[in-house]
Amino acid sequence: MSEPIARRNLVTEYRIKATRCRSCGAVYFPPKYFCNNEGRESEMLELDHFYELGELYSGSVINEPTKRFSHLNRFVSAIVSLNSSKVRVPGRITDYRPTGNQDVKELIGRELIPRFRRMYSDGADGLIYYSSHNFSFKDDYYPHQKYEVIAPSSKDGKPGIVGYGVYVPKFRIKNDEPALGVVERGVPFADEDTTTFAVEAGKRALIHSAVKNSEVKKCFVGSESAPYAVKPSMSTVIQVLELGERFESGFFSGGIDSQFACKAATDLVIDAAGLVTYPVFKGRYVMVIGADNAQAAPKDRLDYTVGAGGAALIIGKDDVIATLDHYLPYTSDTPDFYRREGERYPKHGGRFTGLPAYFKHVVTAMRGILKETGLAPSDIDYVACHSPNAKFPVQAAEDLGFEKRQYEPSLVVKRIGNLYSGSSLAALGAVLDIAKPSQRILLTSYGSGAGSESYIFTVTDLIEEKRRRLVPVKEQIEHPKREYVDYYTYREWKDMV
Amino acid sequence: MKSTPCAAIVGAGRTKFAEHWDEDPRSMIGKAGMTAFESVDKGIRRRDIDACYFGSFLYQVTNKIGLVPGYMSRELGMNVPMINTEAACASGGLALHNACIGLQSGNYDAVLVAGFEKMTDRQDKITDDLMFAADPHEFEAGYTFPGLYATMMTRYMYEYGNGDARCEEALAQIAVKNHHHCVRNPFAQFQEKGEITVDEVKQSKIVANPIRILHCSPVSDGASALILTRPEIAKQYTDTPVYILSSHEATDHVSLYTRDNITGVNATRIATAKALKAADLTIDDIDIAEVHDCFTIEEMFFLEDSGFYPKGEAWKHVYESCESFKGPSHIPYDKNGHELTVNLGGGLKADGHPVGATGVRQAYECFRQLRKEAGGNQIDRDVNIAMCHNVGGTGGVATVHLLARDLE
């Protein structure tokens, strides 16, 4: 595929666009811009199936794939009939590992959800191609959620979190023994990467917030495992989620990919809050995503704590579920963990990553924000910290006098691993999943290199009402359809970036 | 039967279909063409040929040969009009169809039709290349060509198989039958491999479930050629021409997912009906047929799409025909005592399937059978009317030709 073909295709394939003739009702995929029946007189309506359900019409287990798909080993390709328009599209079943002799007749009629996944790439130095012509079973791990825009009941209040979404992949690996408290971790399926995580997290945040996608005019994606060294994941997120008002095949919105080890996303929450209060910006919402296919060299100590996934916040002033009340950053040039350009895996400075790096910055930021606000640990209901493992955040919290009931709910790292840029946002998500109105949350991130920032949020009454549109982190952690893989599979899939 | 045919075949030739590692495209084309010329009973000179029609699918990809007319002009030493036809697996059938139109136009008296393919020159890339015969969205959904036919087979078995094991059995029996037919065909790719059993098919490697390797036609190299003339002058070249009574092509969407029905091939239905009507025949008048069995399900589809068996019931009849077969020779499909023998040389499954050559090879086989020149593989009953059925892709195009030795 060439770059121009890729550009043309993605406009259709990222959201499974079809067209319908207003006169005769004929539906076309690939979309046609005039109707076979009505000719040039026809007026064609665009159909979008991104949030739709479909069902498996027929298919086959592809045991001997084409070279482009050989990295997926064996999979089901199928014809999918989409529920609303009844148009049929080709697709690949994802998050699913069939046996070679799987009887596909048994899968006919099962409901399917479109998923944004990677198809293949043109080698290590070529383009990576994505589409939503990948489907997972509705009765499997990934739930189907409708996206409904709801007009806000309260506008132009104090800025804060309007909605959020955390995405943990279906596949997991169990550690033989807990590694610094990490029992098991999320594993990217062979067609997942940081960009697909960012899209999933952003999609969930949109659904949860119920805000209009066209009113999200900025998107930040923080990561240290972006699929491209040069080319943002952010622009893919904007194209898939259609953030900003559409003009031709683009959108009036902006953003950037950011890098600051594990705090690439969290430090932009304050910028997002600043933007929505700045009149020149004109947008009502900003999306902040932290996503990573967390990298670690095979058999390195990190290889037993790294996870995969993403978390997204939508920041705005309308119908916030938690106001952003305080912010304090702390930064120093500390070379505790780094990766040079062109190197595959990051390096870390052994014990240097602990005391002079993580603890110094996290504790300084937390202590500083408490001092600045005059709050005591007892005034905080929940504390969520960046979680490279399950020991560090506990020690940091306890050093400041926090108790187990305050930090324990955020320790999802035990079951999903370290999401790098998504780590502290996923911890925050787990807390927001259970927080009650008026409760106060202290969030502190950490990024090697090094820095921390602390935020204090206060939960509003709206959190309860919006909760019904959530996919809680705990539900993902404990989902009965989660699947465990062995170390070999984990490494194979993780390294397919 | 219509007494005014559209063309006559006066000569036919082919190479053995095989993995011809030592042969280049030129030598295969040369052998097939020379054999066709030499087979014309009363002789034909190169300068009698007014035009050439070629069928090839992947030459540009497998051998970097793009301008086929110019390439063939050099190889044949001719400067006549030359037309290359690409219609995936129906390239050969469509070349033959175009040749018939050329002769019917009155512009030409005699033409050469040839099909060729050199698939093994791409080795393991051929799985990807074959997806040129499908829709790009299907490729991007991870599909392979066998995967697409497997999707049709899955739906067929779902709608009509009723969970009956005989349906799967029948799809294996088609492969067994076609291997049985190839053992006396010296040009067949699997002549040496010979007979196979239903159990072997059912236990063979899964390529794209439910399609197994022994449901599939092989990757092949080969070429085939025909000499056609206007029917009025055919007897200048031979006393026993084989007449092409009708020649029809029909098309359908390249993509499976946009078709209303994937348990058959609409293009086959249309082309067959038109060809039969044009020749004033019914399907029950056909004695033998060379059918496009790239995968065994496609032969099953033909038996229904052509109207020989009712929709959804072919598998029962295939099963019963094969189960009740006693004799040593060809295995016919039975319909209330009427016999239709399909793929006498082994079909694509066992004779081989060098894509562009197949449609022309089908006419070669019928030409030899109708003239009683098939040697040890000659059918053991008198036959006069034959059908050639060639499909491109998963049914994006189909050509049907009706052939007869005697017009009365």
Question: Explain this structure to me?
Answer:
The complex is a heterodimer of chains A (497) and B (408). Chain A contains twelve helices and 24 strands. With 497 residues, chain A is α+β, with helices and mostly antiparallel strands. Chain A has two domains: 3-137, no CATH class; 160-494, Peroxisomal Thiolase, Chain A, domain 1. Chain A has a nine-stranded mixed β-sheet, with helices on both faces. In chain A, a hairpin with a 6-residue loop joins strand 22 (440-444) and strand 23 (451-459). Chain A is globular. With 408 residues, chain B is α/β, with parallel strands linked by helices. Chain B has one domain (7-124, 218-404): Thiolase/Chalcone synthase (Peroxisomal Thiolase, Chain A, domain 1). Chain B is built from 14 helices and 13 strands. Chain B has helices at 25-38, 59-63, 68-76, 91-104, 126-129, 136-140, 145-160, 165-182, 198-203, 266-278, 296-305, 314-324, 347-351, 355-370, and strands at 7-14, 51-55, 82-85, 110-118, 206-209, 211-212, 221-229, 242-251, 288-290, 332-335, 338-342, 385-392, 397-404. Chain B starts with 6 loop residues before the first strand and ends with a strand. The relative contact order of chain B is 0.21. The mean pLDDT of chain B is 95. At the A-B interface, strand 4, strand 5, strand 6 and strand 8 of A face helix 6, helix 7 and strand 5 of B. Strand 4 of chain A pairs antiparallel with strand 5 of chain B.
